[in-house]
Write a structure and sequence with these properties.
The protein is α/β, with parallel strands linked by helices. It has helices spanning 4-13, 17-23, 41-49, 77-80, 93-98, 115-124, 137-149, 192-196, 199-218, 239-248, 287-290, and strands at residues 30-34, 54-57, 64-68, 84-86, 105-108, 129-134, 155-159, 172-178, 220-230, 251-254, 264-265, 269-270, 273-274, 283-285, 295-302. The chain is 32% helix and 23% strand. The model has no long low-confidence stretch (mean pLDDT 97).
């Protein structure tokens, strides 16, 4: 089931490896996010519970619920109307850390299919400008459908390689780079992750991620905030990328304060590679700690 090389590598990375491997065999809990652009939290909860859905508030996000239902959530009337978005619980965290405000200019560099984009728009209350970019047309089609369904009105959709945003220097108040990754934190969602995983792929993705985070940072206004996130646990794609940014630009790593969720500090060294001590301020979320996906989040400010 798990490749021997994978087990060997992750044994060096995760102290409680057995717990990680065991929970990786379990399916994820279903979860949804209330879309306050269309409805209220109380109103949606009453509607869904009235049909027999069981809802449990996600501890770290007041607009999220763990859900148990026999219905296909995506086929429900409330989903079609855009009252909620089916979204994994920890993937709601990067927009929380980004903390966009109404009236700001915000870039979501790798936006499709739109879970985090619609969440950002919700916190912006449809005020300001939100640029939602992706590189693939098929993904943009899904992104546009979700934006329309959720009632997002302040968005400009673009199709281009993310690294091209370096041309738009000092334009954005906030930038989210939710980068393409090896997805080793998302094994519970798809076993294809394990079939595709190999160290060569990790190195290739790391090169792409460094280009993206550098472009996103250059597009920030001085004093602006960039959030870099992935659903992988690979240090080369996480701390390695942030260490690269620290060496290339004038960057301040901001501490991340999240409530009611167990997090771990960023890793300073892995397999002989040493990273800046500043990466300790980044956040790692392991599946076994909160019964979720695995995730990595970094928050940086442009000096």
């Amino acid at each position: 089931m798990f490749k021997p090389k994978f087990v060997e590598r992750y044994g060096k990375l995760i102290e409680d490896l057995d717990a990680f491997l065991e929970i990786s065999k379990e399916p994820l809990r279903d979860s949804i996010r209330v879309n306050t652009l269309k409805t209220g939290k109380k109103e949606l909860k009453e509607r869904l519970e009235g049909r027999g859905w069981k809802l449990e508030e996600i501890p770290w996000y007041k607009y999220g619920f763990f859900v148990e239902t026999e219905e296909v959530m995506g086929n429900s009337l409330e989903h079609v109307l855009g009252y909620f978005y089916v979204q994994e619980a920890v993937s709601m965290l990067p927009p929380i850390v980004l903390s966009p405000k109404p009236g700001e200019t915000v870039l979501d560099m790798c936006a499709a299919p739109g879970g985090k984009t619609t969440q950002i728009a919700m916190h912006m209350k449809n005020e300001g400008v939100l640029v939602a970019n992706d590189v693939r047309l098929d993904r943009i089609i899904a992104l546009k459908a979700n934006l329309q369904r959720c009632g997002v009105m302040n968005v400009v959709v673009t199709k281009m390689d993310g690294f091209r945003f370096s041309r738009f220097s000092n334009q954005f108040d906030r930038v989210l780079v939710d980068a393409p990754c090896s997805a080793t934190g998302a094994i519970r969602k798809s076993w294809k992750v394990l079939k595709m995983w190999n160290p060569k792929m990790v190195r290739k993705l790391s090169y792409l991620q460094k280009r993206l985070v550098l472009a996103g940072f250059d597009a920030l206004r001085p004093g602006g905030i960039l959030v870099y996130s992935t659903c992988t646990l690979e240090p080369e794609e996480n701390e390695g990328v942030i260490d690269f940014l620290l060496r290339k630009r004038e960057v301040k790593i901001e501490p991340i304060r999240l409530r009611n969720i167990k997090t771990r500090k960023g890793i300073e060294e892995f397999e002989g590679r040493e990273y800046s001590k500043e990466v300790r301020k980044c956040v790692r979320i392991y599946p076994q700690d909160n019964d979720t996906e695995g995730f990595f989040i970094a928050k940086v400010r442009k000096l």
